[in-house]
């Protein structure tokens, strides 16, 4: 069974000191590097939040406060601080992430009007990113998933992976949660387990 490692959004803005820093984010980087060192993957894919500066998920572009919610194109949208803007330092991958074995990069969140948490598609399920096509072309059947953040982009990437027919495993030690609300991480794990994601310790 061919397998791929999907590394979700290990970018400066989600790491320590970033515009949308995930608590403990930097702790997952050595773990992810070790996975790549100790395992043989047929493909290693990075996903990258790649927002235009006028993205509608940014509170600043809607006259809203960070943490508020609006309806954006028919779906609830949490208002985030400006983050991972195309071409900025915040959008770059963290320097400590070893990219020597990376075979492919998927950029997401490029459409101003629609956010994209999942590495597979936008939040409205209108546009695919090309990740599924890439994996199917390379006959990948098993996905191991790590990265940031567990209760948003990692969760939706995992559940979409299952929906697309992949055997899907989340490395718990390779992810951290935003935890806007204290139970978000727990709820995300429960939801992933319900949908058929295997959570590895």
Give a verbal description of the structure.
Helix 3 packs parallel to helix 4. The protein has four helices and eight strands. The mean pLDDT is 97. It has a six-stranded parallel beta sheet with strand order 5-2-1-6-7-8. The chain is 21% helix and 24% strand. It starts with a strand and ends with a strand. The chain has a single domain, classed as 3-Layer(aba) Sandwich (Rossmann fold), CATH 3.40.50.850. The chain is α/β, with parallel strands linked by helices and 201 residues long.
Terminal Cα separation, in Å? 22 Å
Return the structural class.
alpha/beta
Number of helices: 4
The domain tally reads 1
Q: What is the CATH-assigned architecture?
A: 3-Layer(aba) Sandwich
| Overall geometry | globular
SSE arrangement, N to C: EHEEEEHEHEHE
Please identify which CATH superfamily we are dealing with. Answer: Isochorismatase-like
Q: Radius of gyration, Cα only, in angstroms?
A: 16 Å
Largest sheet descriptor = 6 strands, parallel
Please report the total strand number as a whole number: 8
Unreliable parts: none
- Proportion in helices: 10-25%
Tell me the strand percentage band.
Answer: 15-25%
Organism: Chryseobacterium limigenitum
GO molecular function: metal ion binding; nicotinamidase activity
GO biological process, one term: pyridine nucleotide biosynthetic process
Family: Belongs to the isochorismatase family.
């Amino acid at each position: 069974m061919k397998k791929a490692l999907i590394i979700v959004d290990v970018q400066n803005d989600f790491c320590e000191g970033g515009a949308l820093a995930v608590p403990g984010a930097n702790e997952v980087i050595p773990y992810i590097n070790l996975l790549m060192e100790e395992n043989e993957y047929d493909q290693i894919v990075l996903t990258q939040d790649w927002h235009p500066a006028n993205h509608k998920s940014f509170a600043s572009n809607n006259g809203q406060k960070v943490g508020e919610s609006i309806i954006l194109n028919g779906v609830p949208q949490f208002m985030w601080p400006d983050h991972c803007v195309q071409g900025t330092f915040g959008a770059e991958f963290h320097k400590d992430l070893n990219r020597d074995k990376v075979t492919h990069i998927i950029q997401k969140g490029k459409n101003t009007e629609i956010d994209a948490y999942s590495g597979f598609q936008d939040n409205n399920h209108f546009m695919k990113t090309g990740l599924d096509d890439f994996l199917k072309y390379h006959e990948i059947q098993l996905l191991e998933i790590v990265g940031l953040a567990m209760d948003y982009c990692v969760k939706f990437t995992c559940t979409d992976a299952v929906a697309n027919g992949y055997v899907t495993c989340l490395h718990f030690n390779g992810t951290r949660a935003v935890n806007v609300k204290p139970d978000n991480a727990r709820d995300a794990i429960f939801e992933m387990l319900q949908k058929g994601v295997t959570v590895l310790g």
